[in-house]
């Protein structure tokens, strides 16, 4: 099971992500990046793939773009749906794997926001997903997704990190109003390019004592840019833009988060 398959993660996801990105700014501007992309390319319909709890999906709806949403995790889909209903939006959100979902309509714009694509752990699965998304796009339809570049400094650090070498990440207040501390440990296998993470959640009582501990695993795959270029060629896409961040920074060698904007050929 993956971090996102757990109901407790889904129900607290927005709360701890908010706390995390208050301190770490590497996602700033992501919602507007995807809104601009959907405005530019989404006239024929938008789908948010791996939509999670709807951070992008609902932002689009608030700005007048009513996209479909899909995610592998039923818990995440349920949460996104509840949030949409609370905000008065009637959106089509369905659980599915991006490698084989099939919608009854085709889209002009597909978005995989905030590293959803990195959950595909082999080049074969990446290829399957790209081909399947292509099938769900109209001719000339656009897709955006991001990958992390393998970076020697972080690789070296993570290759020396064991799965139980936890570092404190953040503290937040969970859905039940209890303080929780989150620690994680991320190791890296240079042969598979997979980052294996363990996220440990400690629930505290009013005196700060740990009363519950949960460990949730997650694996994500890093992809070299040359690898991705060939994969895109192989799966029938042309590269339109490559950015180094959500503010459309240049994707020079220093960029770790690489955002691909590609067109179905
Ligand atoms: C890092 S979260 C991002 C969620 C959301 N896009 C956001 O920006 O908040 C990644 C999401 O990818 C989903 N996911 C992982 N593997 C998937 C797959 N094969 N097909 C569809 N969704 C997947 C997870 O369930 C999770 O909700």
| Oligomeric state of this protein | single chain
Cross-sheet strand order for the largest sheet: 3-2-1-4-5-11-10
The small-molecule ligands in this entry are: S-adenosylmethionine
**Separation of termini?**
35 Å
Largest beta sheet, briefly?
7 strands, mixed
Cα shape: globular
User: Helix and strand succession?
Assistant: HHEHEHEEHEHEEEEHEE
Number of helices: 7
- The rounded Rg comes to 18 Å
Describe this structure as you would to a colleague:
The chain has 265 residues and is of the alpha/beta class. It has two domains: 3-148 and 224-264, 3-Layer(aba) Sandwich (Rossmann fold), CATH 3.40.50; 152-221, N-terminal domain of TfIIb. The protein is 31% helix and 32% strand. The protein has seven helices and eleven strands. It has helices at 7-23, 30-41, 55-62, 74-86, 123-135, 152-159, 225-234; strands at residues 46-49, 68-71, 93-95, 107-112, 137-148, 167-173, 179-189, 194-204, 210-221, 237-243, 257-264. The strands form two sheets. A seven-stranded mixed beta sheet has the order 3-2-1-4-5-11-10, sandwiched between helices. A hairpin with a 5-residue loop joins β8 (194-204) and β9. α2 packs across α3. The longest helix has 17 residues, at 7-23. It is globular and about 60 Å long. The two termini are 35 Å apart. The model has no long low-confidence stretch (mean pLDDT 93). Bound molecules: S-adenosylmethionine. The site of S-adenosylmethionine (SAM) has 18 residues, from α3.
């Amino acid at each position: 099971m993956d971090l996102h398959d757990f109901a407790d993660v889904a129900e607290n996801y927005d709360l701890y992500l908010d706390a995390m990105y208050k301190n770490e700014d590497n996602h700033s501007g992501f919602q507007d990046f995807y809104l601009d992309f959907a405005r530019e390319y989404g006239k024929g319909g938008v789908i948010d793939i791996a939509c999670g709890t709807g951070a992008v999906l609902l932002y689009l709806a608030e700005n007048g773009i009513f996209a479909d949403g899909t995610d592998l995790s039923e818990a995440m889909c349920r949460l996104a749906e509840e949030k949409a209903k609370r905000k008065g939006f009637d959106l089509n959100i369905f659980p599915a794997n991006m490698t084989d979902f099939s919608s009854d309509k085709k889209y002009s714009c597909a978005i995989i926001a905030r590293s959803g694509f990195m959950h595909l752990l082999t080049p074969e699965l990446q290829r399957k997903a790209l081909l399947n998304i292509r099938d769900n796009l109209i001719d000339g339809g656009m897709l955006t997704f991001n990958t992390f570049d393998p970076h020697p400094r972080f690789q070296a650090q993570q290759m020396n990190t064991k799965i139980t070498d936890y570092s404190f990440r953040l503290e937040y207040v969970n859905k039940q109003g209890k303080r929780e501390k989150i620690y994680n440990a991320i190791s890296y296998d240079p042969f598979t390019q997979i980052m294996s993470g363990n996220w440990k959640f400690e629930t505290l009582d009013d005196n700060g004592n740990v009363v519950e501990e949960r460990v949730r695993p997650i694996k994500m795959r890093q992809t070299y840019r040359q690898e991705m270029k060939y994969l895109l060629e192989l799966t029938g896409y042309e590269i339109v833009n490559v950015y180094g961040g959500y503010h459309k920074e240049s994707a020079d060698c220093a960029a770790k988060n690489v955002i691909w904007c590609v067109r179905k050929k």
